[in-house]
Amino acid sequence: MKKFFAALMLLSAAMLAHAAEFPEGATAPTSAELRQFLEGKVFTSKYANGVGLRYDFKSNGYIFVNVTTGANLSGKWSVKDGQLCTDIQGTATCNDVRMANNILVLKRINGEIVAFNPA
Fold this sequence. Notes:
There is one protein chain. By secondary structure, the protein is an alpha+beta fold. It is about 20% helix and about 45% strand. It has an eight-stranded antiparallel β-barrel. Strand 4 and strand 5 (about 85-90) form a beta hairpin. The longest helix has 17 residues, at about 1-20. The chain starts with a helix and ends with a strand. The relative contact order is 0.21.
């Protein structure tokens, strides 16, 4: 029983570690800055659970996403000041984003902060 509670405590600590705030000093980009940063470029990211993603932001507003689980998704992307919005296969979301040391970081709906690394 002690091992169970110890494992539960470690799991809880790990989950809290990934539900972080944006890095200190990170700033919200304007919509123009964000569009320029993403448009026509490819980025990768990795979730805390180990799932990797590759994002291809086309200049015409389309996005193609390849997931290491084998899924291939597509849809549209747009920006607002401090937000990246996507409508991928009928699921529309807007996520808060910040720039930190010329790296885009996004807050997922579960609170996890994910970095978009140039591919």
